[in-house]
# Entry
Amino acid sequence: MELLAQYSTAILITLMILLVLTLGVGVAAMGSQRFGPAFRNKVMRVRLALHGLVVLVLGLLILSGM
# Structure
């Protein structure tokens, strides 16, 4: 828990950057005919997982008192 509190800003920034990247790729994939539906579904699942990680990290930070 101390490690999370020590590197909380770096962890959150990294997760947010990954979230923005997957959002950008998802938007590009939705508007393009080059990507198939399977790729679009994978991007959406990754984005959903990253949203979950961000919420989890924020919850842990709140519980740890940061």
In short: The chain has one domain: 2-64. The longest helix spans residues 37-64. The CA atoms of residues 26 and 41 lie 9 Å apart.
